[in-house]
Every structure is written in C-alpha cells, then in structure tokens.
Amino acid sequence: MRDQYPFVVGIQSDLLSSLAIRRMVPLAVTELTASDLPRRLCPIIAVRKQHLMLVPFEAAPLDKRLLKTKLASVKERANDIIAAMDAVLSGF
C-alpha cells in the first residue's frame, strides 16, 4: 500500500492537537498529469521531487502514534487542499 500512497497530508486544525487522532489525506502515485485530472478535486503536490495526487475523497482519521517524521510542508498549497476538501464535502 505504501508504494501506491507513499505520504499523507495532515489537514486537521492545530486547535485539535490534543486529540489522539489526526485527519489525514493520502498522496497517491499517479501516471496522470495535472491536465488529465480534475484540478480542483485532485491537485498535484510535489514532495521530495515526486509529483503526487492528493486524494481527498479518501481522507481518514489516523492514530497520531502511527505517524512518523514530518518530511515537508505543503502549507503553500493550503488553498488547493481546502478547495479539494470542499469539493468532496459540498460538491462545489
């Protein structure tokens, strides 16, 4: 499974940091290009020189004990990630 989904992105507010779980969205390996994907729903995010597809419709809670070291920040893509989650939740 790790070969298909090598990384996850934490989307949970820091206001909830005392909880034992974190809401995470997987980043998937894809052969598709950004022009092949619905950009709003599945933005492409670069991590460690890999271009990975955000899969917001597979967001799930993970026990924070399962999470390892933070590898990178995708804060500059926050608007794209929020838009993707909004598309999943509201259809817009």
Number of helical elements: 1
Order of helices and strands: EEEEEH
Low-confidence stretches: none
The overall average pLDDT, rounded, is 90
Strand content: 25-35%
Determine the fraction of residues in helical runs and give it as a percent range: 10-25%
CATH architecture: Roll
* CATH C-level category: Mainly Beta
Any chance you could write out the topology, listing elements then pairs?
Layout: E1 7-10, E2 21-29, E3 44-47, E4 50-54, E5 60-63, H1 78-90
Antiparallel strand pairs: 1-2, 2-4, 2-5, 3-4
Provide structural commentary:
The protein has 92 residues and is of the alpha+beta class. The chain has a single domain, classed as SH3 type barrels. Helix content is 14%, strand content 28%. It is built from one helix and five strands, in the order βββββα. Strands 1, 2, 3, 4 and 5 form a five-stranded antiparallel beta sheet that branches. Strand 3 and strand 4 form a beta hairpin. It is globular. The termini are far apart.
What labels describe this entry?
92 residues; alpha+beta; SH3 type barrels; 5-stranded antiparallel sheet; 1 helix; 5 strands
What is the gist of this entry?
It is built from 1 helix and 5 strands, in the order βββββα.
